[in-house]
Amino acid sequence: MLLEKIETLLQEVGSLTAKNADEVEQLRLKYLSKKGEINALMADFRNVAADQKKNIGIKINELKQAATDKINSLRECLTQVETQTDDLDLTRTAYPIPLGARHPLTIVKNEIIDIFQRMGFVLADGPEIDNDKHVFTMLNFAADHPARDMQDTFFIEQSNPDDVTKNILLRSHTSGDQSHFMETHKPPFRILCPGRVYRNEAISARAHCFFHQVEGLYVDKNVSFTDLKQVLLTFAREMFGPETKIRLRPSYFPFTEPSAEMDISCHICGGEGCGFCKHTGWVEILGCGMVDPNVLEACGIDSNEYTGYAFGMGVERITNLKYRVSDLRMFSENDTRFLNEFVSAH
What GO biological process, any one, is recorded here (predicted)? Predict the structure, then answer.
């Protein structure tokens, strides 16, 4: 009977299989542990007749060795499989993986932000989908004022036909971020509002229905136009070189008074005149001015106590000046041939 049990176990051991290390360990416990099948045979071995003990003892040792060899073999096979597949990831992109770089607009936007942050400006942001109240009304755009045509945008919802302030729209400038900020903060503050904006314009080499802006706002006691001029001069020289000159020309914006357009001396010809600056020696880069008292009052700030200045620039415009990109559409077409030209600028 004992010999038959040993032969049965030998056949079982010979056909053992395992899918993982846990199953191998379970087999070891079943056959080789102190409470395992092979050790249990020793209890029956004590009752074997003396003349049969030698033969049966040899068979038990043979079974134990077979079980040990089989389990070690299964463990070794699993280890080899795991080692061979450790570095194999079929979901990975084929080598070599080309390294990317920042988009040219991101490069320039970050440079603009860095310059103004070193002058004490902090970042503030707002929603791209906003309401008429913050984008237009609080910024001194009357409901029927023709200045609204200057920033015709995409309207999403007309909540109340009798109240334009409730209209929902895509922001046409990041000045709306400033009205949100002024509504909930007390002066003094210096903020910088970068972001994507939208205009209802025909797409061409010089215009697009969306672009990126960086706008700045400083409100405090006794802020003057002189402060604004010095900040913008510092920015221009940091961005375009220490020899850069600026020129401020009177202009009109509903939310600033007085208002101005700022030109820089052409960094291509050094102000001598060339095709890039249309032979004037100057290139326009941004608009600016003193915050209109009506805007301060609409945002809950006492215009008799506080004054401020604001400025805004298009990131695409600055990028064009730095890298002389001829077609504005190239910034959003994701042509890798164009984007690869800016790898070294990263």
Answer: phenylalanyl-tRNA aminoacylation
By three-state DSSP, how is residue 135 classified? Answer: helix
Q: How many CB atoms lie within 10 A of CB 166?
A: 15
Give SS3 for 316: helix
User: Are 191 and 332 part of one and the same domain?
Assistant: yes
In a domain, 110, yes or no: yes
Average pLDDT over residues 281-286: 90
Q: Given phi > 0 = left and psi -120 to 50 = alpha, else beta, which region is 83? A: alpha
pLDDT of 194 > 90? The answer is: yes
User: pLDDT by residue (tens digit) across 319-336?
Assistant: 988 888 878 889 988 888
Query: Does a structural domain hold residue 248?
Result: yes
Residue 93 lies in a domain: no
| 257 annotated among ligand-binding-site residues | yes
Q: Is residue 21 part of a domain?
A: yes
Best CA proximity match to 226, nearest among 241, 244, 248, 245: 248
Both 112 and 68 in one domain: the answer is no
* Separation of alpha carbons 66 and 63, rounded Å: 5
Q: Which residue has the tokens 């795991």?
A: 82
Side-chain-facing half-sphere of 95: CA atoms under 13 Å: 2
